[in-house]
Amino acid sequence: MYDSGCFPFIKSDVFESEDLNAFIGLGKQDTTRVRLVIQRELTTKGSMLETDFSKYSYLVRDVSMHLPVNVGDYTDFYSSKFHAENVGKLFRSEEDALLENWLHMPIAYHGRSSSIVVSETPIKIPSGQVASENAIVYKSSDKVDFELEFATVIGKSNLLGKPIDINRAEDYIFGFCLLNDWSARDIQSWEYKPLGPFLGKNFATTISPWIITIEALQPFKTKALKQEGILPYLRAACPTTYNINLSVSLNGKVVTRTNFSKLYWTLSQQIAHHTINGCNLRVGDILGSGTISDEQEKGSLLELTYNGEKPIVVNSKKITFLKKGDEVVLRGFASKKGLKVGFGKAAGILTNEL
Ligand code: CA
């Protein structure tokens, strides 16, 4: 509806771009105004959109969804304490589960933006170096996994050398989408020491095509988990997070339901920490939350199956890790007193060939 004349305050041709970067780059003043106009048009009887709906709208089934932003940099955090403890126990030991730095800062690694794909893109099972019982071999991964994550899309750049204050961090967020950090556990567990994830992760990352703006989530704000002993630059005046229901379906069956608010480190802490050394974030960058697990629920098959030792049953079939033809769908929504905001889905099917 950009040619409808509803947005005379937007002077440039940002709506004709193939991605949202230029639009987001206009800044909150313009993007929130566009949002309010669309809201008004959708909810006012006799509005242009309501009276001429078919002219300005398409059915989702009639269009192809694309990546919403051109992702410059992608960082993946590791901010769920439950997930970090579960993985630490499996990769190391009960005593050594949470490494000594984990409670002091939001740990992350720099991911790969070139292999971020939009929902419904098939995922090719990767091959790589794997440590088998007696030898190091090159083979197709037997341990392809999903990771249930939530992604922040950066809406404002900070200058190189200028950290973002934790109490201003949300000003730098445009919105959010769902993210599946596909992981080959056999490749990952051999390569990760000492520098962390590499080829076990960067073969594909799926995101959902819709960005839910941070303004849309304000009714779902809630208190963040209590923390102690953190440095001042990570202490917000009023630590908050968002109440968002998340789930994973495997071949049509839900295998995990959890909530974004179970994350230990908040989005503001992730942004404050990411920039505390002067690192600059840019419009369209994506920050993955890290796999979201909680007391009962687990956001990856690594955790659900105890690294493949205790298969789960899905549609009467025992599952340890993903195989060709398996489909994973992440979904999310926030709801409160008649309000509901949906995130759509981040879906992908495993294949041997593209
Ligand atoms: Ca991850």
**Terminal Cα separation, in Å?**
35 Å
Low-confidence stretches: none
Assigned CATH class of the largest domain: Alpha Beta
Largest β-sheet summary: 8 strands, mixed
Explain this structure to me?
This protein is α+β, with helices and mostly antiparallel strands and 354 residues long. The chain has two domains: 2-62, no CATH class; 74-351, Fumarylacetoacetase-like, C-terminal domain (Fumarylacetoacetate hydrolase, domain 2), CATH 3.90.850. The protein has helices at residues 21-25, 28-43, 48-51, 53-56, 81-91, 185-191, 267-275, 301-304, and strands spanning 74-77, 108-110, 116-118, 123-124, 127-131, 136-140, 144-145, 148-154, 173-180, 183-184, 205-207, 212-213, 221-223, 240-242, 245-250, 253-259, 286-288, 312-314, 317-319, 327-336, 339-351. A hairpin with a 2-residue loop joins strand 15 (245-250) and strand 16 (253-259). The longest helix has 16 residues, at 28-43. The chain is globular and about 70 Å long. The relative contact order is 0.19. Calcium ion binds at residues 76, 147, 149, 181, 288, 290-291. Calcium ion (CA) binds next to loops.
